[in-house]
């Protein structure tokens, strides 16, 4: 913390901080908590994998969270979730391997699509059922 001799009440109201400057984060409105984001990711696709949960061993922070996923093919992965997207950081739960240089995916759907043919099939079938239901609703 910086020491200051000036009375904060003497500062002008228009300090020139732009709305999109780094100072907006202090209000807490624009800060994304990656743990919450990770929980949402898990809830979105849990039905299409064997197992998926936010890691309780690896550290979560505002800018990073780790998700363990086991595909229907029984392959295990540890995923890193950041602002850049999702990527595989290890081939087991609760691990990270710095030597692994895997690409980032914008969505969990595209990541799982690339890892698991069974995920693709289950997700596609769920989508078809949903579309059929919508079609029936619109016809009634």
From TrEMBL:
Residues 34-134 form the GSKIP domain. This is GSKIP protein. PANTHER family: GSK3B-INTERACTING PROTEIN. InterPro entries: GSKIP, GSKIP_dom, GSKIP_dom_sf. One of its GO terms (biological process) is regulation of canonical Wnt signaling pathway. GO terms for cellular component: cytoplasm. Pfam families: GSKIP_dom. It comes from the Eukaryota. SUPFAM superfamilies: Hypothetical protein c14orf129, hspc210. It comes from Baryphthengus martii. One of its GO terms (molecular function) is protein kinase A binding. Belongs to the GSKIP family.
């Amino acid at each position: 913390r910086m020491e200051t001799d000036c009375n904060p009440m003497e500062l002008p109201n228009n300090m020139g901080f732009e709305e999109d400057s780094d100072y907006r984060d202090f209000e807490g409105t624009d800060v994304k908590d990656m743990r919450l984001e990770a929980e949402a990711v898990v809830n979105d696709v849990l039905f299409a994998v064997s197992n998926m949960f936010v890691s309780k061993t690896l550290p979560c922070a505002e800018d990073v969270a780790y998700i363990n996923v086991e595909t229907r093919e029984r392959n295990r992965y540890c995923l890193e979730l950041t602002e850049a997207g999702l990527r595989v950081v290890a081939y087991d739960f609760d691990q990270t391997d710095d030597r692994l240089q895997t690409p980032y995916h914008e969505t969990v759907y595209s990541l799982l699509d690339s890892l698991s043919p069974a995920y693709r099939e289950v997700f596609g079938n769920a989508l078809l059922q949903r579309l059929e239901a919508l079609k029936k609703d619109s016809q009634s």
